[in-house]
Amino acid sequence: MKVGFIGLGNMGTPMAKNLAGAGHELTVWNRTASKAEPLKQQGARVAKTPADAARDAEVVVSMLADDHAAEAAVLGQDGIVSALPRNAIHVSSSTISVALSERLTKAHTDAGQGYVSAPVFGRPEAAAGKQLWVVAAGPKAQVERARPLLTALGRGLTELGERPSAANTVKLSGNFLIASMMEALSEAFALAEKCGVERAAFLDVFKSVFAKAPIFENYAGAIAKGQYTPAGFALRLGLKDVSLALEAGRAAEVPLPLASLLRDHFLTGVAQGRGDEDWSALGALAQERAGIEPKG
Amino acid sequence: MKVGFIGLGNMGTPMAKNLAGAGHELTVWNRTASKAEPLKQQGARVAKTPADAARDAEVVVSMLADDHAAEAAVLGQDGIVSALPRNAIHVSSSTISVALSERLTKAHTDAGQGYVSAPVFGRPEAAAGKQLWVVAAGPKAQVERARPLLTALGRGLTELGERPSAANTVKLSGNFLIASMMEALSEAFALAEKCGVERAAFLDVFKSVFAKAPIFENYAGAIAKGQYTPAGFALRLGLKDVSLALEAGRAAEVPLPLASLLRDHFLTGVAQGRGDEDWSALGALAQERAGIEPKG
Amino acid sequence: MKVGFIGLGNMGTPMAKNLAGAGHELTVWNRTASKAEPLKQQGARVAKTPADAARDAEVVVSMLADDHAAEAAVLGQDGIVSALPRNAIHVSSSTISVALSERLTKAHTDAGQGYVSAPVFGRPEAAAGKQLWVVAAGPKAQVERARPLLTALGRGLTELGERPSAANTVKLSGNFLIASMMEALSEAFALAEKCGVERAAFLDVFKSVFAKAPIFENYAGAIAKGQYTPAGFALRLGLKDVSLALEAGRAAEVPLPLASLLRDHFLTGVAQGRGDEDWSALGALAQERAGIEPKG
Amino acid sequence: MKVGFIGLGNMGTPMAKNLAGAGHELTVWNRTASKAEPLKQQGARVAKTPADAARDAEVVVSMLADDHAAEAAVLGQDGIVSALPRNAIHVSSSTISVALSERLTKAHTDAGQGYVSAPVFGRPEAAAGKQLWVVAAGPKAQVERARPLLTALGRGLTELGERPSAANTVKLSGNFLIASMMEALSEAFALAEKCGVERAAFLDVFKSVFAKAPIFENYAGAIAKGQYTPAGFALRLGLKDVSLALEAGRAAEVPLPLASLLRDHFLTGVAQGRGDEDWSALGALAQERAGIEPKG
């Protein structure tokens, strides 16, 4: 396929290489031109502007740092929208805002062009090793045409429906999950350390109990299903245990703000009559805060 | 070994069965006597009080619901301390407070008895299937003597040093990690749902990207090591992404209190000059809040 | 009146002096005896134990540092309960827990003694200047008999019903309000300072707009009444303004965790259909979290 | 003075009336023209566009609902910037973002026009009664020329230096203080109510102890000064009291998220060695989070 590739940073470069390696014909662009050198040596044409890279493409893939860079490359002067042929497709893999994704959708649609949002999960090493996970959303026919590229980038693909910005929501939610786990680990390590537990020992427990076991997967399934009775572990026991963690933190002088937040949510659950439901009923509380009607 | 077993609830019963199955000679006690019936049929003797179950034991294992129940069974009238032979060991598997664990340590030590704290990770099914993970702490010689029992309960064991309450800290920290992941998932599902993403699709992404991949393990390792440079993903990008999630939440009217907390911590990191460190430097912030001096 | 006074710290000493100055006959006790010297010079008898101070008293007033000290002085060996005559009254002014206040109520009642909880608002200077505000709760007849003492301590008295611990709840809630205002001011000063506003200028605005104006009083009245329509200032405007404060904080690199909490609550209000109510409908959200049925 | 007035909502109308009443010659504009009727009857000229209202003015005052409305009226087609004479001044009283205020400053400066930011504190009744408090910032000479208008709007004025956006920061910070107090009151009322305290009684305490007393003013002064020793009330006592409030909340099943946040901050203070400083050292913690060096 004739492919334009916009954005050759730590992520973009290995992604572009994988597309070239899969036999696609690449025209690449990067703001700092020198970064295009490795791709050029691999046979890619180097464009002067995003528009140049888009002009003859069937699909343009972009991988840019933030909203600012993405907006400039797509909607700015000599941007992708100005040159991409009608019916050609822009596959946007950047981690950008839902709002910008919706503006890009409109701009491309108005220009008779296709737009698929396809952010990826994984660090540069994963990109290099074709181990990214791609989440893609957009009109079905367009996702279909882009599929050979999407599958050349990583180890798997989840399709998220026809509305492109849904993929951005999921990418942002995924990074939020990672950051949450890091915060939880950060607080837990601080507590453990100040209570005299070796960091290496706590890490060993984490690896053994959590990291590869289906525990998080099981809870994710429970929350997805929204069925909180019968309780495997009652919410009021969750309140008890997180309160004990906070007491231990007070005694050892270790603030645990995430534990405080959990305590407030568990206590809200108890006050609202959910004490005997499963502790995963945190999911129901989040829905209620958001004004989502429970299913069923 | 001659083993007393105190507490035959959803967890205690399968644990006791596994000990009996491993060839140990059990005397069991439960507040509601009828629950001892299954063990009795498996050949266990049924005691009238915790003291009765402890009187002739080499090791007493207890698995009780909370501080209140544990305190009564150990320190109360006809409690374990009153009858356990000198040099015999109490292995406490209940999820209790650090403070109570320290009081039990003292009471047993004063009585010339051993005390090993050995809480377990896993639900009743895991207990039945010998799939618990045990975290044990106490004097080395005592842990050694209890080892045949500890390994008969589950699939693995992490030893956490000589101070029994360290194991309680780790158990509480583990439950805190689970609750944190559930809260994060709850908020993420609410956001995804209100943005039009099917719950099943989001669950699929979670399973593919997070649940069995080494991602959490890798970050846990980074935080344990405390090395935040060079950055794989910069803290200021973490601030960007969590801010975008909050913006999406505002637009869709989905409050994300855990994301707000993360935003404040990332912003603190940026304000304090850590914007170019890895986003796992959340670990350094938690240490500083706790007054822990950074290593190295 | 014959009065025992227990606890001669920064608060207790000026309070005791005011009682002596109002003509009451004092017997005082303090753990560190030397602190009783000023009262002795004013004519007070110095007791060896709390029991000694209580033995002949019509009323014993106590002003101690915390739960630990209060429990020891009342329920411990040679404590107040052991010696106070039947029908005499213990007026407890210490800032102690609701739970301990309820235990003290029971102990005194069981002993045929009276118990009035009467914590005070104000610092040592206010105590010295008879400017404390007293909040009292307990059986009506007992409060009546203690009234001459309660009014001798300060500038005013609010009666809070027959259940003594209610006064402790109100005292703790009051300190919580002060701490909340301090946190809000702390964050606001940090934001102002980093945005180039002189601290003195911001203080001037605070004094002029808030400190003596009826603004907080008006909002307190609105929340007490629980009437949130018609809106004077709509909740969705509250969301707008607190979001703008957070944006300003992000630009200036000033984390505002209390503002984040407010944003989440306002956004919850909007998501749950309260966007057009007055922003004081935060009061309704707090009630719902606590499972309190709205009046009406 | 010849004055243009833009925005005749609940706040703008009484403000404009006061300017007319003070003898200024008004040309008014409002998006919905019918709202200009009352001013017209008071002798004001009604303009067709913001530009019309600005064309002959010495000063244009604007009071608009949000960033969107303000941006349109100032920078949009037929906006203020397009017609205001050189050296005439735009006084912007709207509650807008710091970022927009900075863009308006630049636009007016580039056009050779003056720009003073002058948001106001007070509700419509206060506007009608000339009881607003004005916070103004901008080049000294321009503030001087606008002074007759600023003083005709309210009961007082605080000047905040030469950078206009500083006044927006202070206005947003002020609304943040109000919302914080409302949240604190909301949680305190919920706790009091569920503990059996009449709302009216708690309101009485609030009015007596806080609303008109100098307590908040005193703490604001302490935080402004940043002197936290010697302690009037030690930070570790603040931790104690807020922890007791949380315990009471747990017993009564009342979540207190603001109290949780305070607990975390007090505990951080204790862990970092500030336990014996005054509890207003919350101010120092806020500075440190923001990377502000303490004054010395």
UniProtKB/TrEMBL annotation, chains A, B, C, D:
<keyword id="KW-0520">NAD</keyword>
<keyword id="KW-0560">Oxidoreductase</keyword>
<dbReference type="InterPro" id="IPR013328">
    <property type="entry name" value="6PGD_dom2"/>
</dbReference>
<protein>
    <submittedName>
        <fullName>NAD(P)-dependent oxidoreductase</fullName>
    </submittedName>
</protein>
<dbReference type="InterPro" id="IPR051265">
    <property type="entry name" value="HIBADH-related_NP60_sf"/>
</dbReference>
<dbReference type="InterPro" id="IPR036291">
    <property type="entry name" value="NAD(P)-bd_dom_sf"/>
</dbReference>
<dbReference type="InterPro" id="IPR029154">
    <property type="entry name" value="HIBADH-like_NADP-bd"/>
</dbReference>
<dbReference type="Pfam" id="PF14833">
    <property type="entry name" value="NAD_binding_11"/>
</dbReference>
<dbReference type="InterPro" id="IPR008927">
    <property type="entry name" value="6-PGluconate_DH-like_C_sf"/>
</dbReference>
<feature type="domain" description="3-hydroxyisobutyrate dehydrogenase-like NAD-binding">
    <location>
        <begin position="166"/>
        <end position="282"/>
    </location>
</feature>
<feature type="domain" description="6-phosphogluconate dehydrogenase NADP-binding">
    <location>
        <begin position="2"/>
        <end position="158"/>
    </location>
</feature>
<dbReference type="InterPro" id="IPR006115">
    <property type="entry name" value="6PGDH_NADP-bd"/>
</dbReference>
<dbReference type="InterPro" id="IPR002204">
    <property type="entry name" value="3-OH-isobutyrate_DH-rel_CS"/>
</dbReference>
<dbReference type="Pfam" id="PF03446">
    <property type="entry name" value="NAD_binding_2"/>
</dbReference>
<dbReference type="InterPro" id="IPR015815">
    <property type="entry name" value="HIBADH-related"/>
</dbReference>
